[in-house]
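note to self — DONT lose this again. spent like an hour looking for the file last time. sequence + predicted structure for the chain T wanted, 163 res
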Amino acid sequence: MEVFSVQFRVNGEEVEAEFPAHLTLLQALRELGYFEVKNGCEKGDCGSCTVLLDGLPVNSCLVLAVQVQDKEIITVRSLGSADNLHPLQENFIKHGAIQCGFCTPGMLLSAKALLDKNASPTREEINEGISGNLCRCTGYVKIVDAIKATADQLKTNQKKRRH
């Protein structure tokens, strides 16, 4: 079995590893200890394995590890810490948008990508932005509320900084 040396960044840290051509990014990240990237359906249907690849949300189960040469990967681990939560994490907690938590890492990253691209999304745009992430617990209303609250909070913070 042929293996390939791949260099990339995960959460700002340089990684160099060897992977067989068939190994998915999901499998590679979990082998490297990034267990916050959830292993769900392995078919691209659920979004639980979502990571940001050069700023765009992707299902890591559909990307081959050898395709990430010289790319930047962001996992939910880089959003915040227990002592310093990202506003999205704070609002997911505040609005009850986390139940079982399985979809949460992918949902947070899809929401971050959306807010990075569109600082003032409508509820419809939020629904579209997270449409690749399946949640079986919340019914999405609380998730959308949390993302909308984060957008409003970030907008308010930005206005305060300008004045």
